[in-house]
Design a protein that fits this description.
about 280 residues; about 80% helix; globular; transmembrane; receptor; transmembrane helix; transducer
Length: about 280
């Protein structure tokens, strides 16, 4: 249950940018500038930050969840009960909102014509830019790296059959889930590292360093970072059997709606006739 709730929360974080920020960015591109007013700019920047930081914190939460599940399986059931899992997800989003609020006091949400977006301005405050990079990128990266390294160590030990007790602790489906989220983390780090490194360089001295950053480099790193939200769904489809199956079913519904309705009705009928079954792991 804990795994599914965190994945849904991460998916929601990725989808936030598609609801409003991305459409208004396209609007700005087509009109060659921002014409929606200051309020809409702040709303777009806030939602953009909500998506980004929400993704970071959810990826961190998933890494900790997988670490507890695989490396501390005996305590996992107590730590990640249904109630505790919901509270942890709520805490993640509360911290996400708290992390974004300082932008309104610093005045760091503004329109950047280079990327046609209302987004975080790295030159608004050197100290705040450093805090953003550390709290929203470096610390989560360190936590996730520690969790996944510990999991890899355990997996290697299991493969070498060092401890029979640990051999039964890691099932193939658990390993596939871990690999999926590890790939999500690696791509996140690759996509976001350039923009955060630019932020650290600019924070040294905004007036001197900001003009030295090539515009093409900033634009590429910016869109590379926000493209990361689109990659997660692709990763799930490539590495998770159930996601692939549902993607095929959705595409079939688009091209052959009548067949989709028939399959949905049949599945609903079969579900009523069959007895309730235990929870099934996503990859099994």
């Amino acid at each position: 249950m804990g795994w599914n709730v965190f994945v849904v929360s991460l998916a929601f974080a990725d989808l936030v940018v598609a609801f409003y920020p991305y459409p208004v960015v396209l609007y700005a591109i087509f009109h060659d500038g921002w014409s929606l007013g200051e309020t809409q700019c702040k709303v777009s920047g806030f939602l953009m930050g909500l998506s980004v930081i929400g993704s970071v914190f959810n990826i961190t939460g998933i890494a900790i969840n997988r670490y507890c599940y695989i490396c501390h399986s005996f305590a996992y059931g107590r730590l990640y009960s249904f109630r505790n899992t919901l509270l942890l997800v709520a805490l993640i989003w509360a911290l996400t909102v708290l992390a974004i609020l300082p932008n309104f006091f610093v005045g760091s949400l503004s329109y950047d014509p280079r990327v046609y977006s209302c987004t975080f301005t790295q030159t608004a405050s050197s100290s705040y830019t450093v805090v953003v990079v550390v709290v929203h990128f470096l610390v989560p990266i360190a936590v996730v790296t520690f969790c996944y390294l510990r999991i890899w160590v355990l997996v290697i030990q299991v493969r070498r059959k060092v401890k029979s007790e640990e051999r039964s602790r890691v099932r193939p489906s658990d390993l596939r889930n871990f690999v999926t989220m590890f790939v999500v983390f690696v791509l996140f780090a690759i996509c976001w590292a350039p923009l955060n490194l630019i932020g650290l360089v600019v924070a040294i001295d905004p007036e001197i360093m900001a003009p030295r950053i090539p515009e093409w480099l900033f634009v590429v790193s910016y869109f590379m970072a926000y493209f990361n939200s689109c990659l997660n769904a692709i990763i799930y489809g490539l590495l998770n059997r159930n996601f692939r199956k549902e993607y095929v079913r959705i595409m079939t519904s688009v091209w052959i709606p009548r067949r989709f309705v028939t399959e949905t009705s049949r599945a609903a009928t079969d579900g009523v006739r069959s007895k309730p079954s235990p929870a099934i792991n996503n990859n099994e």
